[in-house]
Amino acid sequence: MLQDLLQIIRRGVPCPFQRFTGLYCPGCGGTRALKALLHGDLLLSLQYHPLVLYTAVVVAAELLSLAVARVTKNPRWYLGHELFLVHVAVGIVIVNWVVKNAILVLFGLNPLPLWHG
């Protein structure tokens, strides 16, 4: 059982949607993107799933703006929870999902390479 768990960790979490449909789900590649980002490989992270890097940048910017707002005691510096940022995230997920499945279906290519890290 431990060997099975180690295999899953090495290969990544399997996607039930992809397993049953043969297509990528909107979140496919997210785990691998996070792993690549944590290893410092920004381009590979973007290739796996651009939402992960986008989220990291948005969270870092929000935390930095909150810190500056508190230190300067000027709430104007705080970015806040902008609905626009959520709309961008949803757009990233949709475009990523459509493009990856188009590459898979139209060209028969796997846009999610195996992790080599």
Describe this structure in words.
- With 117 residues, this protein is mainly α.
- It has a domain at 40-117.
- The protein is built from six helices and no strands.
- The chain has helices at residues 2-11, 16-21, 30-38, 42-48, 50-72, 83-107.
- The longest helix is centred in the C-terminal third of the chain and has 25 residues, at 83-107.
- The model has no long low-confidence stretch (mean pLDDT 88).
- Keywords: Membrane, Transmembrane, Transmembrane helix.
- It comes from Clostridium porci.
- This is DUF2752 domain-containing protein.
- The chain crosses the membrane at residues 51-71, 83-109.
Summarize the structure.
This is DUF2752 domain-containing protein. This protein is mostly helical and 117 residues long.
